[in-house]
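Hypothesis: this fold can be encoded by more than one sequence.
Test: take the structure tokens below, design a sequence, compare later.
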């Protein structure tokens, strides 16, 4: 049985920069042309040197401000864009309370803005009911009211958990997202989806709650490890496979040409390009039920790996590993050619995703997570099949229906997981 492809010596040249992928399905191409700006440079800059975009989710919009080492200017936007509030409720994890809180809280004090704080655990295992209950209890016991503004400060775990609390308290209080990771700045904060994990299943308990404002200071990225930066680049790798064009060129420059050395301006460009990808689909599909399901590419197997006992990988890297599994499936189903698969997988190999897999048979556990993926239910159930999003080639997604979901045989999905585990883990499976 053929293995997952190995890296090419150079990244293949597929789409020119600043051009729309010639492979985009016609319907998606019209959306992209009609609702997006062609390059990140076209986003507005204000007098404080901040980049701004009015992010659209359906008919609703909220402002996003991005700057580098511009924390005071960003904090000033709170008073400018929010009506009267009594105080902020700052939500941290165990890292951001150490590395980001001192600068943020000093800026709030300079601006005369009062705040209360709450800290949750750092890992995916802490994104649960116990953490949610701790946040709700702390909020109420510290005097939180309908006029209090919830402000998660950190990565996607913090944003999702405190965001869910914001949607529940008083049936919804205002939410200001302050992402401090590269991944969160173009992922969780640019969505209405707020959720936690439960009973071993990812993002299974949640609701839709729109942020009022997003404030992003990319200088916080300087606190991240190389691994954490790779987590953010993992989602951008997914976008490169989805859209080609600028997204593909960004990943080529970042993972191949620059050796991970991003300047502050390049960090801002990458953040805005990731935001533009979400903006162009969420304005048409605010609850992510059809067109925006494309952003779930690679997530079915990726989430399963993240949630498997003893497996250690970041969300973004898990997504790229999931991309390898679905490219194998698409190739075996005749949807993707061997040549297109090689080019697709080269994107992932250039990122060099890291994962620790225990030296035991964990296939059944991974497959159990796959079979309970939160995308089940969009299509009528078919015994022996798993609905998955597949790619034909870089910049063109397989579209069997408006949800872009294909029925994939369970046996083939299991085979793709075996190939993946054989490549990255010590325990070997027969194919």
């Amino acid at each position: 049985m053929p293995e997952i492809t190995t890296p090419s010596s150079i990244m293949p040249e597929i789409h020119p920069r600043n051009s729309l992928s010639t492979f985009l399905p016609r319907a998606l191409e019209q959306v992209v042309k009609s609702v997006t700006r062609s390059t990140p440079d076209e986003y507005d800059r204000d007098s404080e040197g901040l980049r701004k975009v009015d992010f659209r989710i359906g008919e609703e919009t909220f402002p996003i401000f991005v700057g580098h080492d511009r924390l005071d200017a960003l904090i000033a936007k709170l008073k400018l864009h929010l009506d009267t509030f009594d105080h902020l409720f700052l939500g941290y994890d165990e890292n951001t309370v150490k590395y980001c809180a001192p600068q943020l809280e000093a800026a709030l004090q300079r601006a005369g803005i009062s705040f209360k704080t709450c800290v949750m655990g750092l890992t995916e295992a802490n994104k649960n009911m116990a953490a949610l209950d701790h946040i709700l209890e702390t909020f109420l016991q510290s005097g939180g009211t309908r006029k209090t503004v919830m402000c998660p400060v950190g990565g996607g775990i913090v944003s999702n958990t405190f965001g869910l609390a914001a949607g529940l308290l008083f049936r919804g209080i205002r939410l200001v997202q302050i992402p401090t990771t590269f991944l969160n700045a173009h992922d969780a904060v640019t969505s209405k989806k707020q959720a936690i994990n439960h009973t071993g299943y990812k993002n299974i308990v949640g609701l839709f709650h729109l942020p009022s404002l997003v404030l992003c200071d990319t200088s916080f990225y300087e606190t991240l490890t190389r691994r954490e930066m790779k987590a953010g680049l993992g989602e951008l790798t997914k976008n490169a496979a989805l859209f080609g064009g600028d997204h593909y060129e960004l990943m080529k420059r970042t993972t191949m040409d620059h050796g991970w050395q991003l300047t502050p301006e390049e960090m801002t460009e990458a953040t805005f390009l990731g935001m533009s990808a979400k903006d162009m689909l969420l304005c048409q599909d605010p609850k992510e039920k059809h067109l925006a399901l494309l952003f779930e590419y690679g997530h079915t197997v990726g989430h399963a790996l993240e949630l498997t006992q003893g497996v250690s990988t970041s969300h973004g890297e898990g997504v790229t590993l999931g991309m390898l599994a679905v490219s194998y499936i698409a190739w075996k189903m005749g949807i993707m050619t061997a040549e297109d698969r090689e080019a697709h997988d080269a994107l992932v190999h250039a990122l060099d995703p890291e994962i620790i897999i225990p030296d035991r048979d964990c296939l059944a556990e991974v497959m159990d997570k796959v079979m309970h993926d939160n995308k089940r239910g969009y299509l009528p159930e078919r015994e022996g099949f798993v609905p998955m999003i597949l790619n034909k080639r870089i910049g063109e997604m397989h579209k069997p229906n408006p949800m872009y979901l294909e029925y994939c045989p369970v046996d083939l999905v299991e085979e793709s997981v075996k190939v993946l585990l054989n490549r990255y883990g010590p325990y070997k499976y027969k194919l």
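DSSP finds 15 helices and 14 strands in the chain. The CA atoms of residues 161 and 196 lie 6 Å apart.
Hypothesis status: open.
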